[in-house]
Amino acid sequence: MAQVKVYSTPTCPWCIRVKQFLTENNISFEDYDVGTDQAKAEEMIQKSGQMGVPVVDIDGTIIVGFDKEKIKATLGL
């Protein structure tokens, strides 16, 4: 089972879409609100090199934005 982390904010529509997509595909994930968690925001910036959300970390593979095809390929869906 892949370890999936989603760095997001509650108001970001693409973040909501990513989480809905993962939920619909029965993929468990940890969600970090980088709007309130400064440490996770720093971690996200270090991993992705940018401040935009969402950032999805699938076993160390970083996907910026809701790139559905890349998420599916990385998870083997």
From the structure above, extract its key features:
about 80 residues, alpha+beta, Glutaredoxin, four-stranded mixed β-sheet, 3 helices, 4 strands, about 40% helix
Topology readout:
Blueprint: E1 4-8, H1 13-24, E2 30-33, H2 38-48, E3 55-58, E4 61-64, H3 68-75
Explain the overall architecture:
With 77 residues, the protein is an alpha+beta fold. The chain has a single domain (4-72), classed as 3-Layer(aba) Sandwich (Glutaredoxin), CATH 3.40.30.10. It has 3 helices and 4 strands. It has helices at 13-24, 38-48, 68-75; strands spanning 4-8, 30-33, 55-58, 61-64. A 4-stranded mixed β-sheet has the order 2-1-3-4, sandwiched between helices. The longest helix is centred in the first third of the chain and has 12 residues, at 13-24. It is globular. The protein starts with a strand and ends with a helix. The model has no long low-confidence stretch (mean pLDDT 97).
Summarize the structure.
The chain is of the alpha+beta class. It is built from 3 helices and 4 strands.
If helices are DSSP runs of H or I spanning 4 or more residues, what is the number of helices? 3
The domain tally reads 1
Structural class, by secondary structure, is: alpha+beta
In CATH, the architecture is 3-Layer(aba) Sandwich
Strand content: 15-25%
Radius of gyration: 11 Å
Helix-strand topology string: EHEHEEH
Low-pLDDT residue intervals, each spanning 5 or more residues: none
